[in-house]
Amino acid sequence: MKKVLFGEDFLNTAEIHYFRLSPQEWKDRIVKAKEAGFSAVSSYIPWLIHEESKGEYDFSGPYDVGKFIDLVASHEMYFIARPGPFVMAELKNEGIPYWLYDEKPHIIPTSWNSRKVENAQVIYNHPDFLLEVDRWYAAIAKIILPRLIQNGGNIIAIQIDNEIGMLHWVNNTPDLSDFTLSRFIDWLLNRFDDPFRYGFELVKDNKTYERLRNPSNDFVHTFIADYSLFSRDDFAIYVNNLKNMLHRKGIDVPFILNIHGTSAGRAHTFPIGISQLKKTFDLEGVIPATDIYLGDYTIRNIVDVWNINEILKATTKKPFGIMEFECGNGDYGNNLGERIDPNATVHKAVISYIQGNRFLNYYLFSGGVNPKLRKEIKDGNSRIAFTGEEHGFAAPIKPNGELDYTYEYVKFANKFLSNLEKQLGKDFSLVYDNVVIGYLDEYYRTEYAYGMGDKKRSDIEIHRGYNFWDSFLKTLLVMGYRYKFVDLESSKPNVDQLLILPTAKYISKSVQKKVVEFIEKGGKVIFYGDIPLFDEFGSKCTVLVDYLNIKPGREFLPSTHFYLSVSSPDNLFREFRTDWAREIITKGNENCSSSILAYVTQENAACSVFLHEMNVLFIAAHFNANFIFFNHIFELMGLKPHIRVLAEDKDKIGTLLFALENIKTHEKFLLAVNIDNFPKKLRIMIDNVEIGTRNISPKEIIFEKISV
User: Fold this and answer.
1) What is the pTM of this model?
2) What pLDDT does residue 296 have?
3) What angle (nearest 5°) sits at the alpha carbon of residue 161, between those of residues 157 and 166?
4) By the 8 A CB rule, do 531 and 582 touch?
C-alpha cells in the first residue's frame, strides 16, 4: 500500500458493513470498492452484535471483523474502525447491547419533569457505563492492535463513538440525572461562584435536582444557557475518557469524531452539532468530521455544503473530513420516496475537497442484510436493526450485490478528485474574497427547550439562518463571493476584512465589545437581522447599539390585510414582499452621517441604513435574492468578487466558479460547476480581467489550468 498520513494526504473511503454481509460476499464488495477508486474501507463494529450476552463475545463467521480487515488489507486498502460504543446505523439501541440497560438501569438518564429518557441515551460519564465500555474496548483492542498501521497493518484511524449529543438534541432530553446535576452544580459554582444564581441555594439534594428538572420561568433561560455550556464540557470529558481507554490499550492512531446536524436536506441546524462538540476539537489526536446528508444539490441548498465546511474550518485548526458523505439514490425506505440526481454526489464531493476536507467516507456504499439476534426478542422482527431484513436500499451497491445507477457516478467522483489531487498537489489554496461571516456559537446552543413560548430561542433561530442563509449568503455565493467564517468567541477578524454578522436581540457582551473594537480599528461591518439589546442570558446589554447610536423602532409582520413590503428611497430596486422588518432609528450623531437604503413601504420606517464614517451597514429586514441591492451595498463597502460570471442571470445563478493555485508550482486553475440541467455559456472575470468564454454542459464540471 502507498503510505499516507491520515489527515494530511487525501483519503477516499467506502463504508461497507461486514456484519450485514456473508463472508462469501466480502471480497465482491471490497473489489467493487477498489474498482470504484477507493483507497480505504470503513465500517462500524457494533457492540450489540459482538457481545449480545454479557461476557460472551462472538467474532466468528459474518462477525469475524479481523478476517474482514485482513481481506481489505489483501487488496491494498486501508481501514477505518468505528467501534462505538454508540454506532447508530439504524441498529437497535443505537448499537448498545440490551443487557447493559437491563443490568444497569441507573445509567439511563432522567430529563425534564423528572421523566426517564425512553430512547437509547445513557449517562455518558457515569463510571458504571464507562467500566463496561472499557471492557468492550479491551475485547476489540485484541483485534485492532495488531492491525494498526504502525504495527504493519492497515487500520489508519478509529472513530470514537458516533454522533455524540444527537439523541439529547433531537429528543430534547438533556441528561438531568442526579449524577450529572451534581457535577453540573460543581461546574456552575466554579464558573460563577454564585450559589444563589437561580434564586435558591444550589445544594446537592433531591429538592434542588427537582427544581432544575422543572425550572420555573424566572430562571429557565439562564439555566438552559448554563447547562448548554456545561454539556459541551461534559461531552469533551467523555471523548477524552474514551480516548484514554484506547491509549491504555496501546492504540494510538488519529481518533475521528463525527458531527451530526443536517435535516430534511438542509444544514440550517448543522452548526448546533458543531457547537455541541467544538470543545472536543481541542483534544490531542482528535480529528473532527461531518455527516452530510443534503440530497439533490440544487439552488435550494447550494449554500449548505459551503457553510458546513467553512464553519467547521472556523472552529478548528486541525485537518477535517466527512465521515458520512451521502452517496446513494436517496430511497432510504425502499418506497420510491426519492431519487437523487447522482451528479449531486460528484458536485458535493468536489466542492468539499477544494474547501479542505482531507477524507470522504462514502456512506453507505454497500447494502446488505440485517441478521437475526441470537436471543430472540419479540419486537416485530428480532433482527439487529429496525429497517427490516434488507438494509442499504439506496446504496450504490444494492443489498443483493447489484450495482445501482449511482455506482458509476461515485466512480467518476473518485477519478475526478484523483485528478484534482494530482494537478493541485497536496498543498493548494482556494482563493477567497476579503469577506468573513461571524459565527456566533451562542446562537447554536439552542438544542434544549422547556415550557411554552421560548421567545429568546425562537428569536435566535429566526435570525441566525433561514433568510440570512437563503437570501443573503446564497446570493453572495452566486455573485461570486467566496467567504469564510470567523468564530467570534475565540477569534477576531482582520481589520481589512468585511465582517458580516447575523444578529438577533441577543448577543453576548463579550462579542458586542469585540465588534465595537473591530469598528474602532477601522473594520467594516454589515449587520443582518434584529437590533441586539440583551446578552446571551437575557440581561439587558446595549454596548453595540450605544456605540452605533441607533435603537430599534417598530417591528413589522405581515397580517391578513397588511402586505408587508420593502422599498428603496432612490428606486434602486423594485418593491418586494417580506415576512419581517424592524425599524432602525438613528438617534443623530454629529460625528457620523447616515443614509437610508431601504424602508418599510407606506411607513416612515427605515429598515436598512448606512453609517458612513463608521463604515457600518445595518439590514433589519428579510430580503429576497436581491442582486441589485446586494451589489450596491458591497460597492458601498468597496468590494467586488475575485471571480465572477459576466452573463445573463440564467447562466450565472446555477454556476459556481472557483480559482485555485498549486502552492509549490504557482500554477493557477479554474473550477466551474454547473449544478443546472441545461448548458451554459459563461464569460468569466478574474480580478477584473476577462479570461474568455466557456461552454459548459448540463451538470458538467470544468477544471483547467489558466493564465491570469
Assistant:
1) 0.97
2) 97
3) 130
4) yes
